[in-house]
Amino acid sequence: MKPKNSKERRSSFIKFIALFVLVVTVLLVAVFFNFRIPKQENLLLKATIDEVEASEKYQKEFANEVNQVTRMIDSLDTVGVNKVFLNEVLVQRLAKVQESINNGEASDLHKDMYFTIIDSYEDLRKAKEELENLKDSKKKIDEYKAAYEKAKEDLDDLKDEYRILRNRCN
Questions:
Q1: Contact 86, 72 (CB under 8 A)
Q2: CA 110 to chain centre
């Protein structure tokens, strides 16, 4: 005994299976993308975080180096310091920091700022060196002024003696 609506039942069953497969496929695709897309996004975010952390690490190292350079420049004013040696150390340290910027340790976004800071410190070092040279020049100028005043007084004394001798001879 066969049911009379077996074709309709089979057709309904095939439609149900097709619809079931379609719904399950849609759910599986949704779940797949739900897990797959955040994985890629997480990888991208981790790369960004690593880059930011590397930049922050370099900024701390740069700040530490700049603080040491600042202390060294400030010590140029101290009496009794070997200024030639300290200037050489300063030049080497600034070159080392500039080289680390060039080697790509610094992010491209901040390179110009770092170079400007290094140039400013180099200008400050040169200005301090020039100021020290000018202090020596000021001492020399004072010595020359004193020698000039003494020579002027000696000249006035000799002029007076010359007049006296001239008046005696006439």
A1: yes
A2: 7
Rounded-to-integer distance, Cα 86 and Cα 129, Å: 11
User: What is the rounded distance in angstroms from the CA atom of residue 104 to the CA atom of residue 47?
Assistant: 17
**Would the pTM count as exceeding 0.70?**
no
90, 69 contact by CB (below 8 A)? yes
- What are the extents of the domains in the chain? 6-169
pLDDT tens string 66-97: 999 999 988 888 878 888 888 899 989 999 88
CA distance 92 to 136: 26
> Do the beta carbons of residue 76 and residue 128 sit within 8 Å?
yes
Q: Are the C-beta atoms of 69 and 94 separated by less than 8 Å?
A: yes
With tokens 């000696």, the residue in question is: 154
